[in-house]
């Protein structure tokens, strides 16, 4: 059986546009923003910085998947409203995560890209739902998913008719507690050979440590990534979740600068 | 912070009744039935056998979580109707899995126990939803979940007010491809020390091989389990999914017989 | 290619004697003793208790595999001498671990069974060396070994002509930090089907917690184990290593008592 | 306790020379050659190619760690002799693996660097032995080792007085069977922060697929690696082991060329 995710030829690539931004093309796309949407003012400070750095897409969680029910669960629909409002006023596109079928429709209403997180990569009702929409979907790899599991999750979406699927490596479980996860950098190369879909890397969840994000971004660019999904904030230490892995927009600027040089060395550009 | 799942004393146990069946008490409860609900006639043959064996609760999937979108996805609501109808005519109670918030309400309508499977153990919207219902919930452990992750998933349900939560070990990921999963038998002992909730074992998914189900059941009984969730059928080879790990009701009879002897040896009984 | 470890028929079993003790037969063999050999007096207290409980084989490490070079490395050859001397005076047989080819010869000189630990299961020079000796070998499973890896390690020994090989499950790596390892209980059943070799379980390393050893032993007996390798001491808290998982000989007595009842329920006996 | 592997200051680095080659300095060192040493003529063809490409150190296994005792175990001491002879005639330095204490002395006799492979990373007698020699040691990470385990293995060597230790990431166990291992690329960054020791990457074992070696090398360079240990041969398909992951010296040439550009982009050079 020939899978919809499979390349039909060596150069077969899915390239699509979100707003004016091309995904899956020669340019490596930067997506950045806080882990979760907090208050409007903080988000504005970050949005302003992203704008200056030339970043076109802002991330921000409204529905937060948390291990403990006592952890901050996100501002829900109100978070989406803040994200959408701030993004619009700075001319940015948006991406946010949905944890249920119902939330998929909410995120689709307010955002440009729907994110399916690692915990719901295997949730067929959610995958089928985003498959029936026209909106681009960023599909994160589950922390213990094989490449096959991940590709079959993408197939659920493609089968329903939505081919705007971005695969996003965000780290898998490893040995030891020193880093949050293990960035499986070779998944980029593997996926680029196996599928026509664009492949992103999330260096923030993959490492769980802000000081490692810089190297992770460079390695991803060298490995052939199509985009980076980075937790960044004007004031990382004031964020409501994942502070430890959120970089400052200042550091993001350094990554973008060095990233441009590196992208050029592998015949790509950084947008 | 004191968690709701935590024991308040050494002997603190949650015991509740489903229909007339006591869960979490001295008796070890057998739940059995096919992986997925097929046609009515087949299910009746299995139900009749279960009845004869003294089994009180029948399992059967209507919404099936499958890796591939091209695999059988279950008969959906119609499957629940068949399950419910057949179970009633044989005086059996039922359990079935829900993969989304919407499906939780469907399963709650037709069944006595709502199962949250391994793939959705970390799905907070689903956990919150079952937490707001009065129905008992069987919460399977995710294939790469730590004990803490699993207990926190239970906490999501308890926090919403539903304390009829059964923990169900169903195997975790291991090394090698010889068995489907690794039955973490000591999770039973660990959980019985840590929490007041009843702990079940699913020997079928834990091993993925029908010839290993017998030993897995005996080991679970010796380890202190409160119940067993077994894939069994009148005609395993005709089932629509998980044939390879489904035992015949004849083998189930042998397990129950030997299980009774073993249960007695550890001061329990088998119901 | 037919492997030497493979069963030639359903009832094919390797049964051999160490001293007067039959390994691989109907009786389940208890091996117990401290993690590492300390001073002679402490070991004598343990040996005396073991003798009273009817235990025939005493364990005790002289060469200790430790993660840190600053941890106690064992009393080396002197430890073997103490072990051997104390065991003889109480009429016990002995087992101890070798970490190198050279140590294999030392252990062979002083002990009745040579233990190859989890860290050296894949060490072909060591496997070949014990394969050329006549002494029984207890081969522990490596913490991330598949069944195939483990069986092939046994094959290294068998190929050299020594067929007195005992496989010993001692837990594999899992998820979370709550227990030291995951006792893969079903490895017993799997191995008993696949190979004619006796299969033991080490409940102490498998759990890392002394309070879980009791349940682990019962589960292993129910699962069909041929022997148990238990860290036990007259005074667990005074031991030089692995205190946390060492049970008192008093608890060992309780395990043996309940174990006898359980063994009988599965048509075995406990020796 | 302050470990010997720990950095004393941000810029603390261990730099040493093997022959004329600086390890741990600004230059990224290429080590290449076949998985195992075969016949002299084949090795000469590879050596000639390496020489032309400017590679200074040749790898080649004489003692091969194999899962099955029926797989090629290497040409043993004769392999070391061939490796040494061919290398000398082409002015190359050599590295080869030792699997036992005894083999350490053999490898030390014929080679410039002693390799401790993944399977023996935790073997304290071997670690102590190389620690007492003056020869540089390349210490591979075990497939399921945490960073801490790996660093403590290095500490065993450092403690004995040998500080010429190279850490080499070679992939860890992951999920699925599509690649041999998971290249934990961030281990490079982590180790460079934590320790003063040089860090290498082995892209061949890390991926197990020759077509992925190119990307793996680029990612490693971008991530800050100090050297690359690559399985390469004049005629990969004629090699006696690991053919599937061995690249041609022609491909190696391409990697070196692109690697130079990339190294420059991160302020390094390639030697």
Question: How would you describe what is shown here?
Answer:
The structure is a homotetramer of 271-residue chains. Chain A has helices at residues 40-53, 76-89, 101-110, 124-131, 147-159, 186-194, 203-207, 213-223, 249-265, and strands at residues 16-18, 21-23, 27-33, 57-59, 93-97, 113-116, 137-140, 165-169, 199-201, 227-233, 247-248, 269-270. Chain A has 271 residues and is of the alpha/beta class. Chain A has an eight-stranded parallel beta barrel, surrounded by eight helices. A two-stranded antiparallel ribbon of chain A has the order 1-2. In chain A, helix 1 (40-53) links the parallel strand 3 (27-33) and strand 4 (57-59). The model of chain A has no long low-confidence stretch (mean pLDDT 97). Chains A and D meet through helix 5, helix 6, helix 8 and helix 9 of A and helix 5, helix 6, helix 8 and helix 9 of D.
Q: What is the mean predicted local confidence, pLDDT of chain A?
A: 97
Note the run of SSEs of chain A as H and E.
EEEHEHEHEHEHEHEHHEEHE
Give the terminus-to-terminus CA distance of chain A.
Answer: 37 Å
Shape of chain A: globular
Oligomer: homotetramer
**Unreliable runs of chain A:** none
Number of strands of chain A: 12
Beta percentage of chain A is: 15-25%
Strand arrangement, largest sheet of chain A? 3-4-5-6-7-8-9-10
How does the major sheet of chain A shape up?
8 strands, parallel, barrel
User: What structural class is derived from the secondary structure elements of chain A?
Assistant: alpha/beta
Give the C-alpha Rg of chain A: 17 Å
Q: Helicity level of chain A, as a percent range?
A: 25-40%
Largest Cβ-defined interface: A-D, 42 and 42 residues
* Count of individual helical segments of chain A: 9
């Amino acid at each position: 059986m020939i899978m919809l995710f499979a390349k039909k030829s060596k150069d077969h690539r899915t390239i699509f546009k979100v707003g004016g931004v091309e995904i899956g093309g020669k340019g490596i796309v930067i997506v950045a923003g806080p882990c979760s949407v907090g208050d409007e003012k903080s988000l504005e400070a970050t949005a302003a910085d992203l704008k200056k750095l030339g970043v076109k897409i802002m991330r921000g969680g409204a529905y937060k998947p948390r291990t403990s029910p006592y952890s901050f669960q996100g501002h829900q629909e109100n978070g989406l409203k803040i994200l959408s409002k701030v993004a619009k006023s700075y001319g940015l596109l948006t991406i946010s995560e949905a944890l249920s079928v119902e939330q998929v429709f909410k995120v689709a209403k307010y955002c440009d890209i729907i994110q399916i997180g690692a915990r719901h990569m295997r949730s067929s009702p959610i995958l089928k739902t985003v498959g029936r929409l026209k909106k681009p979907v960023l599909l994160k790899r589950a922390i213990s998913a094989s490449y096959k599991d991940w590709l079959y999750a993408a197939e659920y979406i493609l089968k329903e008719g939505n081919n705007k699927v971005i695969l996003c490596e965000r780290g898998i479980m490893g040995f030891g507690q020193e880093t949050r996860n293990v960035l499986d950098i070779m998944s980029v190369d593997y996926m680029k050979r196996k599928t026509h879909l664009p492949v992103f890397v999330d260096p923030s969840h993959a490492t769980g440590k802000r000081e490692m994000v810089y190297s992770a971004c460079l390695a991803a660019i060298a490995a052939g990534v199509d985009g980076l999904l980075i937790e960044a904030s004007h004031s990382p230490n004031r964020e409501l979740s994942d502070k430890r892995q959120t970089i400052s927009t200042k550091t993001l600027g350094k990554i973008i600068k060095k990233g441009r040089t590196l992208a050029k060395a592998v015949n790509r550009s950084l947008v």
